[in-house]
TrEMBL record:
Its EC number is 2.1.1.-. InterPro entries: SAM-dependent_MTases_sf, SAM_dep_MeTrfase_SAV2177_type. The keyword Methyltransferase applies. It is an enzyme of class 2 (transferase). GO terms for biological process: methylation. Pfam families: Methyltransf_19. GO terms for molecular function: methyltransferase activity. It comes from Nonomuraea salmonea. SUPFAM superfamilies: S-adenosyl-L-methionine-dependent methyltransferases. Keywords: Methyltransferase, Transferase. Residues 1-23 are annotated as: Disordered. This is SAM-dependent methyltransferase.
Amino acid sequence: MTNTDRQTDPQDPEYADAPAARINPHIPHPARIYDYLLGGKDNFASDREAAEALIKLSPGTREGVRAHRAFVGRAVRYLAAEAGVTQFLDIGTGLPTQDPTHVIAQRAVPEARVAYVDNDPIVSVHGRALLTGDPAGATEMIEADLREPEKILNDPAVRDLLDFTRPMAVILAGILHFVTDEENPFGVVEQLKAAVPSGSHLLLSHITMDFADHLSREEFTKPYDKSSAPMVPRSHDETMRFFDGWNLLEPGLVEVVTWRPDLTEYQEEIPGGHAWAYGGLAIKP
C-alpha cells in the first residue's frame, strides 16, 4: 500500500492520523471559505454555503477579500524588495493559490525562506503540492494552530528553515478575528513578537465592524456560526493593541484598500465602498 493509499483508506490503522481523516467537509472552515471567495476550487459545499451567506449579507464581500489579498501582496512586496526581509513566518496562510507569500517575496529576493502554518488539514495536503518557488529559496508547510504559538515556534521544520537570531516578518493576515477573546489573542501575538529579534516586522490584518453600522454583530458574524472558528470582529483601537511596543510604519493601521495603494494596478470598486478590514505593518525596535 502506498502512502497515498494509507491517507485515504479508512480501514488502515494509520488513517486516523492522516490529514484526510481530519478533513470534515460538513463544517465550513475559514481557509476554504476564503479560497472560494478568491475563486479557488479547494472547498466544499458547506464552505460555499457560508461564503454565499456572506455575499448576501454584503454584496462587496468578494471584492473586499480580493482587496485584502492585494494589501497582503503589497506589504510582502515592500518587505522583500525595500525592507530587505528574507525570512517569513506566515501563520493562518490558507490555501496558497493566489500569489502566495513565497512567490511574491522570491521575485524580489530569490533566496527568501517562507514557513507557512495553518490548522486546516486540506491546506497541508494541497499546500505542499503547490509550494514551488525559486530554487535559491525554501518553503515549508506546517500543520499547527495559532492558538498554540509555542508549538509553532518549537516546530523542528520551522526551526530548520528560519533563523530566529535574524530579523524576519511574522504574517498574521486575516487570522486573528478567528481567535476569541477567551483564547487570549493578544497574549498569543505577544509570544510571537517576543520570539523574534529587533528589526523584525509584524504584518497584520483584521476584520472590523467599524464600517458596518447598518448591521448588528450577530448579523455580521452569523455566516461563521457553524464553522470551525467563529468570527470576532474588532475595532481600530482593539486591533492597534496587537502592535503594542512596535513601531507602525506609514500610513499606520488603516483600511486595507488605503494601505500604500499601487496606482499602477487595477483598482477594483467595492460595492458598499469598504473592505471591512484593517491592515498594518510594524517593526520591532
